[in-house]
Description:
The chain is α/β, with parallel strands linked by helices and 463 residues long. It is built from 13 helices and 17 strands. The strands form 4 sheets. It has a 7-stranded mixed sheet with strand order 8-7-13-14-15-12-16. Strands 10-2-1-11-17 form a 5-stranded parallel sheet, covered by helices on one side. A hairpin with a 5-residue loop joins strand 3 (118-120) and strand 4 (126-128). Helix 1 (7-16) packs across helix 2 (22-54) and helix 3 (86-99) crosses helix 13.
Amino acid sequence: MPGTGVPGEREKQAGEQTDGKPGQASDAAGRQRTALVLGLLGGVIALVIKTLQSDKIVIGSRDTSLYRGMNGLKDEYDLVIVGAGLSGAVIAERANSQLGLSSLIIDKRDHIGGNCYDFIDDHGIRISQYGVHIFHTKYPRVEEYVKKFSKWVPYKHKVVGQVKDVNETNRIVPIPPNIDTVNTLFGTDINTEEEMTAWLDERRPKLEQPPQNGEEMSISRVGTDLYERIFKQYTKKQWDKWPSELDASVLARLPYRTNRDDRYFNDKFQALPTDGYTKMFENMLLNNKDITVRLSVDYFQVKEALPKHKLLVFTGPIDAYFASQGLAKLEYRSIFWDKEYLEPEGGFYQPAWVVNYPGGDVGWTRISEYKHSPNQPQGAKDLPGTVIFKEYSTDTGDPYYPVPNPRNQELYAKYQALAQKEPGVTFVGRLASYKYFNMDQAILNALELFDGLVSEKKISRKK
Length: 463
């Protein structure tokens, strides 16, 4: 196979180009080996010269220095930050670049980047360990901020779903549902926004009071037909509760379109980091003498041995921090991914990066195929194989989605009251706030929290 990098194969190919003369074949192979050695030697020399000129050793996100536990730390840091995800990274970067402050970041996971963590797998495909992450924002401040740490590939995310039509035939349709979704599933001939709105209104009940639960809220937005075909079973799989058992607020922003727009998001800036999210986090945190990162370190196991610090920033679950207070645990939904490597005809398994499965006939909620993403390494799309992830919503595992019901909201208020009284500690992020954040919301939340710490003089420029 050409291009495999196997020396024996390259020698054979060189010999074949010499009209079968053994001496010429041997000379050609010898020249090729010499050129290869000289090329490698030249590269090593260039790397050494570059390193000496810069007087700086560049480390990556798997450098052994990140796994030294509590060894080799300074005696004191301005901040200790628990969590190397978006919230923790933004606080550390801002504290250093704006105020010259030092931070120690610890994370119980073995990588930086939190749930955004991605990498190129053994098959040569860039995948995310914790599900698909599409960056999108309407906030100019957030867009300007992330562009400091990565180049970006424009990308308008489009999701489709495999849904049964009125004849119980599986059809691939746009999600969120739009005009084309309705026409495909129900055999209608809708062409304008006015016609689409009228079709929905015929199926949306006239309520005399605000929706009292998730089912009433769903039907008030998308009508009975779309609710039954797309949202009812999907909600049960996602939350392990029927919509009628959920608070109305959970489904208050149920998405749909009255036109043919098939984009999943409407935000002005939609893109993916050219070299992946992990590289962006490397640019934010690593190779900075004032930011120290330690991975595979559990805060609760080392909290009594932390270096001296002026402020602790906690980005983990707020109920875990106050576990000794005797309050009940907050409820979360988690996610399990079943990964498969396949070699389908044509190299791709499905027509889009993400295909949702709203029906109750399969247990997974969606299948993701990362090979579709535009920030794949060169040549990935030409590989014969592909990697898919079937996604299941579960009760056990890492916390992902808060369960917004009256019990949890009342319980979180108690934790929040404890947090406000905790001296020398600031809580930030989705787990500490018991609130789901998109990536841009998490970044904006951290930026604004940093502004607040400065204005309240909880942190200040290093003298």
